[in-house]
Design brief:
mainly alpha; 14 helices
Length: about 350
């Protein structure tokens, strides 16, 4: 019979093998397809190209680009490379940032004996976002790293990682807001500084008129998306079926429907429980930040805008942590995890 140390070594090797094999498979796929098959890379490549040439970002010509203008400015780096080479670089950055963030998150929140299980459980949830080269792995890795940094009281780097990741795609700001509710005096003013720098920094990359127009178009697009249903795969599907008896696609959503109210109530519930565990139940900072991440993942997966399989990469650590926590508590015969 294998000793506990050898079992742990085999488990660690299994996690490394699974992730290495998956990464190799994705890179081979990108090489063979040139970053064009079932890939979101072209959206970022052409957004960078449009930004360089001062072309509209949100007219649909940039392959459906919907992120904040500064992200397009950052993507101009990709336009310096051949399209296929840029696809490889983008894929490498996605994997590196996501796995680095997950490694820091696991180092902070997951017991050593459970970290291999955490990475094994992480792969099925993060699979699609990494496979189709969306931005979710990049942003998800930054959020995981930010959560670990805040738990260590490294305020500036933590708030920068959480806030910028949320600012790029907006919906993941739920993580920054929930963590900020735990440490308001430490994080809110730092978050405001980070956002101000993110807003102003874009003006250093292009002329004033173009950037102002880009921000205006971005805000208009965000407003339009908030009032249009775009094939939701989350609670909206259940809500629509229960209230209308059917599920439609592309149907307009009223400015304040019962579902929007449910979104707000769910967000309030996540906030209330986050505040409860820290201020009333007196959880330590690390466990409270972990709870805030889990609450944000629950809200984003259930009530966030246009939840789909690749979006799960943004919240992959939530289910993975829940699985290893359940396993740890079962092995311990019940009790607290961590």
């Amino acid at each position: 019979m294998l000793s506990a140390g050898k079992k742990q070594l085999l488990l660690n090797l299994a996690a490394v093998f699974l992730w290495s094999g998956f990464a190799v498979a994705v890179f081979v796929r990108v090489i063979l397809a040139g970053g064009t098959h079932r890939s979101a890379y072209d959206c970022f490549y052409f957004a960078g190209e449009h930004f360089l040439q001062q072309l509209p970002l949100y007219s649909g010509e940039a392959h459906g680009y919907q992120y904040y203008p500064g992200f397009a400015a950052a993507m101009t780096v990709l336009t310096l490379l051949p399209f296929a080479v840029g696809a490889l670089v983008w894929t490498a950055v996605n994997f590196a940032v996501f796995l680095f963030g997950a490694w820091r998150f696991a180092g902070q929140f997951i017991p050593p004996a459970q970290r291999a299980w955490f990475f094994i459980a992480l792969l099925p949830v993060a699979f699609e976002g990494l496979l189709n080269q969306q931005s979710n792995p990049l942003l998800g890795g930054a959020i995981l790293w930010g959560a670990a940094l805040v738990a260590q009281h490294k305020w500036w780097r933590g708030v920068a990682a959480l806030t910028v990741a949320g600012w790029i795609k907006v919906a993941p700001l739920c993580y920054a807001l929930l963590v900020g509710a735990i440490f308001p005096r430490r994080l809110w003013w730092r978050g405001a500084v980070v956002l101000a720098l993110a807003v102003v920094g874009v003006f250093l990359c292009q002329n004033y008129e173009y950037v102002v127009a880009g921000y205006r178009d971005w805000l208009d697009m965000c407003q339009r998306l908030s009032n249009d249903r775009h094939d939701y795969r989350d609670m909206f599907t259940l809500y629509e079926y229960l209230t209308t008896g059917a599920i439609t696609r592309g149907a307009p959503v009223a400015e304040m429907t019962g579902y929007h109210l449910a979104q707000l109530l769910a967000a309030g519930l996540a906030l209330a429980f986050t505040l409860k565990v820290y201020y009333r139940d007196r959880w330590d900072a690390g466990r409270a930040v972990l709870f805030a991440y889990a609450a944000g993942a629950w809200w984003l997966m259930s009530f966030g805008p246009s939840t789909e399989i690749p979006t799960l990469t943004l919240m992959a650590a939530g289910p993975a942590w829940a699985l290893v926590a359940a396993r740890e508590m079962k092995n311990a015969g019940g009790g607290r995890f961590g």
